[in-house]
Each structure stands twice: as C-alpha cells, then as structure tokens.
Specification:
34% helix; 14% strand; 8-stranded parallel barrel; 10 strands; alpha/beta
Length: 367
C-alpha cells in the first residue's frame, strides 16, 4: 500500500499546476498531441515551458496533418493552418528545453473521419483506395461498408509525389530528424475493387508503403515512426481489430526496415507486445491514453522488461509516450480542471505515467 500511495494521491489531488520530474532510464519520455490552433499557439508554448519541460518530457509529437500553410501544396492547406512563424516559435521553445519535436501527417490510413474525407482525398479523389464507398450523411459504426477511415491507394502512381512534398516541407520547418506517419487502423487495403491493389497481399502492400516512406526519410537523414497495431496479429494475440490487425497485415513486421520506431499503443491493458517488437529488432515506445492504472502498469511492465533483458534487447525499449486524442486546446482545459476520481482522464493518465516513471526510474542493472 505504501508503494501505491503516491499514485493514489495523484488521482485524487486537484490539478494545481505542479508537475513531476520524470527522470528515468527510459531514453524517451514522450507526449503526442494534435497541433494547437493558431489562436492557442501562445497557450501551448506556455504549456511546453511550464509543464512538459519541467516534467521531464523530452519528445513531443505534434499531429499536424493538413493544418499548416503549405507552400509546396497550397491546395492541401486545412481550414485553420499554422503559419511558419508559429511553428518556429514552438521549434525554438523545444530547442531551449532539449525536447525533440516530431511532426506527424497521417499517411496511408485515416484519410477520412466520420462523414468527411480529409483534404488529400477531397482535392485528389483519384487517390481513394475505395471510391465506391460513399461518405454517409450520418456516420455510424458498425456499417455495411466497414467504413472506419478511408485510405489512399499506396500503388497510385501519383500519390507519393504529393504526400512527400508535404512531408519534406513539414520536416524542414520543424527542423526534424524524425517523422511520424501514423499508419494505424488501416482497414481499407488490397480492396477487391481497386484496379491496382485487388488480389494483392495486404501485408506486402503495407510493408511496401512503410518501406517507401522510410527510404524517403532515410535519404534525407531522418527516421520513420509509426503506430504498431497493424504489425500485431489480432487473432493470435486475442487483442482484436483495433489495437492489432485482423486484416492480414501483421506479417509485414518481417518485411519492413528495422530502423522504424514502433509506437505500441494499448489503452485497456498493459499488453506485453513491446517484447514482441524488441525481439523482432525494433525500437519500441509504449503508449497509454486515458486510464491511469493502465499507464502505471505499462511503466512497470517496461521497467521489468528492461530489467530482465540482455544488453541487445534492452536498448530497444525506448520508453513511454502519453497520447492525447482530444484537440490540444481542449486538453489544456482538461489539464487544469479538477480530477474526478475513477473517471477516465487523459490528464490524470499523463500524470500517472510520470509518477510511474519516477517510481520505477531506478537504474536498470546491466547483464
């Protein structure tokens, strides 16, 4: 009980603005969130200064997607794009705190949400893997089309010229050495009606797209990060279709470059899949969301994996990264709101992760 006391106090304490200092043997203490709106850049900059940096966060992923004033592809600017000057403000603050700032643009999957396609398929509908699946006026899940999010066709001959323009530009403005391509929850792939992909192996297609993106980044001295769910067999593991794959992409794990960093997200349990990725030779980061007890269990699991690993395996366990799936603006409000014990909370989960890192942050003995 004494060991759990700091964790229990954290869940019931008010959010008074104090933060923890998560120093640990984990090389990465990360935070992943959507880019702030232009109106809230100053507030988010203060959050970096006053919360993320003092808490020990050293890696910040900002999901930008189309919310930047792209010069290379101005037709793909979102409705509320960040300016170059606003991004540079965040870049400089992160530099001051030695925080690695990593941009994300969802590639392959997540090209729609609910009843709307993203800017890519709006402007370039020919890239749609499933053009026969129409966007509903009112989205519901499940549905007859199996529509969660659309994908672009990875074999379309023109798609990479477009998306790599975005990638190159956002990497330049972020002065980044790593890029997150998303690639989670890809349900539409090798569609029976796609003239290019039909009849093909989904694992080969997925691996081909990961490899193409990775090679493009490597040529510019950068490294690819992706979510890990499509590389886990959802049937064998029992994890299912969301946090793992039920559409035959899992074998891609043996076809992609080992330089890819795997962000291994699990939100209901501390599934021991980091060991799977590490055994396959990948660097892996464990990612919670909104359940404090899950986050704490994940930190403990990762600590024990490192503690009981060979030197070769140990280096693959990079650390922890909190994921935020509300807007940045909304999260800033949540972070400063009172905690309701027992309720799911991204803010409480983040603080629990930091507490766990402190608790299990003693040096791991070498083997």
């Amino acid at each position: 009980m004494a060991k759990l006391l700091p964790f229990l106090l954290l869940l019931t304490a008010p959010f008074c603005g104090s933060v923890l200092n998560a120093q640990s043997v984990f090389p990465v203490t990360g935070f992943c969130i959507g880019a702030p709106s232009p109106e809230k850049v100053d507030d988010f900059a203060n959050f970096i200064d006053n919360t993320l940096a003092p808490s020990g966060v050293n890696t910040l992923i900002l999901r930008v997607d189309f919310e930047y004033e792209y010069k290379s592809r101005p037709e793909l600017r979102g409705d509320h794009p960040l300016t170059r000057e606003q991004v540079k403000k965040l870049v400089n603050i992160c530099k001051n705190h030695n925080i690695e700032l990593i941009p994300q643009i969802n590639l392959l999957g997540h090209q729609s949400w609910h009843s709307n396609v993203t800017k890519l398929l709006e402007v370039y509908p020919q890239f749609d893997e499933t053009p026969g699946v129409k966007m509903p006026e009112k989205y519901e899940w499940p549905n007859a089309d199996g529509l969660y999010c659309k994908s672009y066709c990875p074999l379309h001959p023109e798609v990479h010229a477009v998306v790599f323009d975005l990638v190159d530009e956002i990497m330049e403005v972020f002065e980044a050495k790593s890029f997150h391509a998303g690639m989670d929850e890809v349900f539409y792939l090798a569609d029976d009606h796609c003239p290019r992909c039909q009849g093909m192996d989904p694992a080969t297609l997925f691996a081909g797209e990961v490899t193409k993106i990775s090679n493009h980044l490597n040529a510019n001295g950068a490294r690819l990060w992706i979510w890990g769910d499509r590389l886990i067999d959802g049937n064998t593991s029992g994890i299912g279709m969301w946090e793992a794959s039920m559409n035959n992409t899992a074998r891609a794990i043996d076809m992609i470059p080992k330089t890819v960093v795997i962000c291994d997200w699990h939100y209901e349990r501390a599934d021991p899949t980091p060991a799977y990725f590490a055994l396959k030779g990948f660097d892996v980061i464990v990612c919670p969301w909104n359940q404090p007890t899950v986050a704490r269990n994940q930190v403990e699991m990762l600590h024990h994996l490192k503690q009981n690993a060979t030197a070769k395996m140990k280096k693959h366990y990079l650390g922890m990264m909190q994921t935020i799936w509300s807007t940045a603006d909304r999260f800033l409000e949540e972070y400063n709101a009172p905690v309701v014990p027992g309720e799911k909370s991204q803010a409480a989960c983040f603080k629990a992760m930091l507490t766990g890192i402190e608790e299990f942050g003693n040096e791991v003995p070498s083997h």
